Amino acid sequence: MPCPVTLPWNEQLLAYDFGAGHPMAPVRLRLTVELLSALGLLSAPGVRVVDAEPASDDELARVHERAYIAAVQAASEGVPDRSRGLGTIDDPIFAGMHEASARIVGATLAGAQAVWQEGPARAVSIAGGMHHAMPGRAGGFCIYNDAAVAISWLLAAGCERVLYLDIDAHHGDGVERAFWDDPRVVTISVHQSGQTLFPGTGFAQDVGGPDARGSAINLALPEGTGDVAWLRGIEAVAGPVVREFAPQVIVSQHGCDTHRRDPLTGLDITIDAQRAAAEMVGRWASEHAGGRWLATGGGGYDVIWTVPRSWAHLVAVSAGVPLAVQTDLPAGWLERVRDLVDGDGPTTMSDGGDTDFRCWVDGYDPADPVDQSIAATRRAAFPWRGLDPLTAD
Length: 393
Prior knowledge:
alpha/beta, 8 strands, single chain
């Protein structure tokens, strides 16, 4: 059934550009919006495209230090501050960096405001998901932390329980840090283990601050984890907590660098599993969060074939008009893509992945590395929430 969904977007979001050769190329957003248009999703029932204005300094200061905001503004004028991560290989400075970064925050804020003030409603901020930015430092291609600012705004607006679910290949460290000791926010991150991937954090024993034990939940997965195990892990660590916590809003980050084609990561996930994960989150939002769901993009460095397809599925699922996995890619869009790359790529919205997973409570294999990780996470975090690590479903 179609759902009202807000899509904050304008062409100025493409100005978040670290330059030629940087993995986070803005063409990934342009191709995503062009695919959304070609598939008819921008005109689907209930879909509303709204403008994305830069967040104000006061809005950024909900999460970020004023001195850091000033340093980003200086970086926009050509003055790096490597002590704050500005001017590094990951985060080179560029003209207009502050405004471009603040606009991403503004887009996600617009989505949060629509979800809270107009709910039950949904929103997708495809340019958002900058989950590595810390209060006083850039990191991992992220300057300002849009998800953390949006969650802070929700709390100030009267929301009492927010669940943040991050399924990017990288640990959602910046959002976790912002709410480490705040029991009103549960952060769940399902990611490739920090033993093999940046930022090197996010392990099972990391469960939150002294006043919020069990509010941070981390599932660190072994390199090479595939579709069935990944979906099983998401359901096993997030499902019981969503049902227990009963959030008023779910905020989710859908970095698609989990994909098997991604050049920077080591998971083995398909478009089909990413679509299935979005459906899982959408179902939880409908059943346990009053229908309020704010989704963001995030990582994703196979910028032509993976990012547009993954986030087109995310928008379609959010709008309640999910695309069949075997939907053909529109001919005009394929022609556009072939102007950018040599050779042929996928022709449908599917990779032929397997999404039929067994739920945790139906049995687990103590010799399986992924099941070992799931068990470690549940043992570390679930008792703090009054959940049984073995039987909670």
